[in-house]
TrEMBL record:
<protein>
    <submittedName>
        <fullName>Protein containing Thiamine pyrophosphate enzyme</fullName>
    </submittedName>
</protein>
<dbReference type="GO" id="GO:0050660">
    <property type="term" value="F:flavin adenine dinucleotide binding"/>
</dbReference>
<comment type="similarity">
    <text>Belongs to the TPP enzyme family.</text>
</comment>
<dbReference type="InterPro" id="IPR011766">
    <property type="entry name" value="TPP_enzyme_TPP-bd"/>
</dbReference>
<dbReference type="GO" id="GO:0009097">
    <property type="term" value="P:isoleucine biosynthetic process"/>
</dbReference>
<feature type="domain" description="Thiamine pyrophosphate enzyme TPP-binding">
    <location>
        <begin position="37"/>
        <end position="80"/>
    </location>
</feature>
<dbReference type="InterPro" id="IPR045229">
    <property type="entry name" value="TPP_enz"/>
</dbReference>
<dbReference type="InterPro" id="IPR029061">
    <property type="entry name" value="THDP-binding"/>
</dbReference>
<dbReference type="GO" id="GO:0009099">
    <property type="term" value="P:L-valine biosynthetic process"/>
</dbReference>
<dbReference type="GO" id="GO:0030976">
    <property type="term" value="F:thiamine pyrophosphate binding"/>
</dbReference>
<dbReference type="GO" id="GO:0003984">
    <property type="term" value="F:acetolactate synthase activity"/>
</dbReference>
<dbReference type="Pfam" id="PF02775">
    <property type="entry name" value="TPP_enzyme_C"/>
</dbReference>
<dbReference type="GO" id="GO:0005948">
    <property type="term" value="C:acetolactate synthase complex"/>
</dbReference>
């Protein structure tokens, strides 16, 4: 049953953003720093990002600090030496 439900769940448009976050997760280096801005994509990142050893995920702690992602990614670059820090920020409309 779980496999059948997973196949249905993966094909719904509401899950496309989760698949995009999972693909991003698979594509990043083990030393990447990922800063997530405020919005629905923060929930999608919690749900779908597969954080590996050596990676760092930065969130504003749910405080609604809009605009957090980009400066946090820049700071992560200087603080950790991450060559490719990533800022996740989006709010897709349907």
């Amino acid at each position: 049953i779980k496999e059948n439900l997973q196949a249905v769940d993966d094909q719904t448009p509401e899950r496309y953003t989760n698949r995009m976050i999972a693909t991003l997760s698979d594509s990043l280096a083990d030393t990447s720093a990922i800063a997530v801005d405020v919005g629905q994509h923060m929930v999608w990142s919690y749900q779908s990002f597969k954080n590996r050893k050596g990676q760092q995920m930065l969130f504003s702690g749910g405080h609604g600090a809009m605009g957090y992602g980009l400066p946090a990614a820049i700071g992560a670059h200087y603080a950790t030496g991450s060559q490719w820090p990533v800022s996740v920020g989006m709010e897709p409309s349907r």
